[in-house]
Amino acid sequence: MTNRGRKFRLADGLKRIVVLGGGLLGAATSRFARRHGIEFYVFAGPRQASQILSDGRSVERLWRDESVNVRFVDDIRGLPDGPYGLAIPGAVILSFGSPFIIRKDLIDLYGGRVLNCHNAPLPEWRGGGGYSWRIMAGDRRGNTCFHLVTPGIDEGDIVYEKSYRFPKSCRKPIEWQAHANAEAAKGLAFLLSGLRSGKAFRLRRQDERRSTYFPRLDSARQAIIDWSNDGASIENTIMAFSTPYSGAYSWSAGRRVAIFDAKFVRRSNGTHPFFAGLVLRADKDKFSIACRDGVLLVPKDAVVGDTTLRVGQRLWSPSAAIDAARELRPIYTPSGLRDAVNADQKTRSESDK
After folding, report:
1. Range 25-51 average pLDDT
2. What backbone torsions phi and psi does residue 22 show, to the nearest 5 degrees?
3. How far apart are CA 81 and CA 51, in angstroms?
4. I need a labelling partner for 56 at 20 to 30 A (CA). Which of 4, 146, 290, 346 fits?
5. How far is Cα 147 from Cα 160, in angstroms, rounded to an integer?
């Protein structure tokens, strides 16, 4: 790699690609490598094998369909045939949702030739949580971004980026994923072709004055509906934890209920904060559920639980459960979820990569 004049290029050409994580962009990278005779290796965490992609396949099924021998491992250190042993001139690491900590020694071993794909307008929206945070915020700015990996979280210089907007037809996280993958695939093709041809990419430093950070989420315990919020915020919460996640949840008649879809309709009269959560109507195909400033229209097939909603029932979430969801700080390892509350900076740096 050369970085004189703040540019990035592979001085030795592109001879080997090591992917950490994977998914649909990882598979597209494997096809590029196959077409051009470039060595290709992929390493993922055991928890990623069963993750469902935007095309409906699991990660494990994807790699099987691609005839790629993926290694699902807990740790990439110490593997004689792992990333540490694959560093040669012309080798590059690409991170697509890497579950592993990419440490400075690995970055140095590759001469800085380690890039991460982050589909957000960096330096805003650093960290994890997928698209759920942005759906909650109503921020439809998309950005295909490949940046150099540094020991800090999503802080490295940007090698390539192209902005876009998520259309209103994208409501569920899986729809955001599909759109972002389609956009990122274009940027990936340009990046890989440029790296192979020796193109010099001009680097851009991130403006730390605009940086924001968001941790990972655990939808099973944090996707709680706070009925004291305004209706638009409740709709965004429900959509943020919809497919492929476990749904936003509340309780009715003492039983937990998950909701996967809703549309808020604002009303200027006939509302009151005490109405929130009441099932006002039960039509053939949808429920009308009161909010403090309007009504949520919820398709009946978007409600999952061991109780049947009826007119006059109330959905409600205890304040203690809401507080617990806010206090929780989920920590993920390559194998799965490990709880942590009020994690310190060191733990955060190690877990959110």
Report:
1. 97
2. 135, -120
3. 25
4. 146
5. 7
CB-side neighbour CA atoms (13 Å) of 137: 12
Read off the tokens for 44. 């993922």
**Three-state DSSP string of 261-275:** CCEEEECCCCCCHHH
* pLDDT of the residue at 338: 83
pLDDT of residue 248: 98
Superfamily the domain 7-214 falls into: Formyl transferase, N-terminal domain (3.40.50.170)
- Is CATH 3.10.25.10 correct for 225-316? yes
Residues in the chain: 353
DSSP string for residues in 148-204 = E--SSTT-SPEEEEEEEE--TT--SHHHHHHHHHHHHHHHHHHHHHHHHHT--EEPB
CA 352 to chain centre: 11
- Hey, which residues does 248 pair with through a beta bridge? 259
Q: For 53-86, write each residue's pLDDT tens digit.
A: 999 999 999 999 999 999 999 999 989 899 999 9
